[in-house]
């Protein structure tokens, strides 16, 4: 059974959605470890309540690669097959990506390649799009540029604020992130160039 390592910085609601689906048997994987770069992250307490191994590896005051070496060591120690970023508020260095190439998933609150980076919901509203959504993608050296595994569209309402739009997108995030993790751990996809294709 494949082992997941989930990285969070805050509450980690996407982590919790994945964990509930693992517990329910909908994702055939084991969560080997949940790691936060912030000791006060609420998601660590949630992980421990769920009986999961939860670690804090603080990033504050550390050089980026020094922090990532600690992170990579912990993930290897727990024999992690797939790294899932769930509100992990750091851009990973090429060193980390080399260690887990093709085995890092992230979720972004927009239909990539539109509105990468921060404040994606505000970017969508400012641009005036009628539809936005969320994207699960493999992580590469760029910012939100890796091959796309799953997407879900969400309508933008006239009265939306970044907060109301974010709340509706989040419901779809919880659904498609678990779907994407399932596809990867069950080896049901293949990558050709930028395209992630379902295996027959």
CATH topology of the largest domain: Rossmann fold
By DSSP (H or I, 4+ residues per run), the number of helices equals 6
Please identify the structural class as seen in this structure.
Answer: alpha/beta
How many domains, in number, for the residues?
A: 2
What does this structure look like?
The protein has 200 residues and is an alpha/beta fold. The chain folds into two domains: 1-101, Formyl transferase, N-terminal domain (Rossmann fold); 107-200, Rossmann fold, CATH 3.40.50.170. Helix content is 36%, strand content 26%. The chain has six helices and nine strands; from the N terminus they run βαβαβαβαβαββαββ. It has helices spanning 13-23, 42-49, 64-77, 94-99, 120-127, 162-185, and strands at 2-8, 29-36, 54-56, 82-85, 104-108, 131-138, 148-155, 189-192, 195-198. It has a seven-stranded mixed β-sheet with strand order 3-2-1-4-5-6-7. The relative contact order is 0.15. The model has no long low-confidence stretch (mean pLDDT 97).
Brief account:
Helix content is 36%, strand content 26%. It has 200 residues and is α/β, with parallel strands linked by helices.
Topology:
Layout: E1 2-8, H1 13-23, E2 29-36, H2 42-49, E3 54-56, H3 64-77, E4 82-85, H4 94-99, E5 104-108, H5 120-127, E6 131-138, E7 148-155, H6 162-185, E8 189-192, E9 195-198
Parallel strand pairs: 1-2, 1-4, 2-3, 4-5
Antiparallel strand pairs: 5-6, 6-7, 8-9
Helix pairs in contact: 1-6
């Amino acid at each position: 059974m494949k082992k997941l390592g989930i990285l969070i910085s805050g509450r980690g609601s996407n982590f919790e959605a994945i964990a509930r689906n693992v517990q329910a048997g909908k994702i055939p994987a084991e969560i080997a470890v949940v790691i936060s770069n912030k000791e006060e992250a609420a998601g660590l307490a949630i992980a421990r309540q769920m009986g999961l191994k939860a670690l804090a590896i603080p990033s504050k005051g550390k050089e980026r690669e020094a922090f990532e070496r600690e992170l990579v060591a912990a993930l290897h120690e727990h024999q992690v097959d797939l790294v899932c970023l769930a509100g992990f508020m750091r851009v990973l260095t090429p060193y980390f990506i080399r260690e887990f190439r093709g085995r890092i998933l992230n979720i972004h609150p927009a239909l990539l390649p539109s509105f990468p980076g921060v404040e994606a919901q505000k970017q969508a509203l400012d641009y005036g799009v009628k539809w936005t959504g969320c994207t699960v993608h493999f992580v590469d050296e760029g910012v939100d540029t890796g091959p796309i595994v799953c997407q879900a569209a969400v309508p933008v309402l006239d009265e939306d604020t970044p907060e109301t739009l974010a709340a509706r997108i989040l419901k779809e995030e919880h659904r498609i992130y678990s779907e994407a993790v399932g596809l990867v751990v069950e080896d049901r996809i293949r990558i050709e160039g930028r395209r992630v294709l379902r295996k027959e």
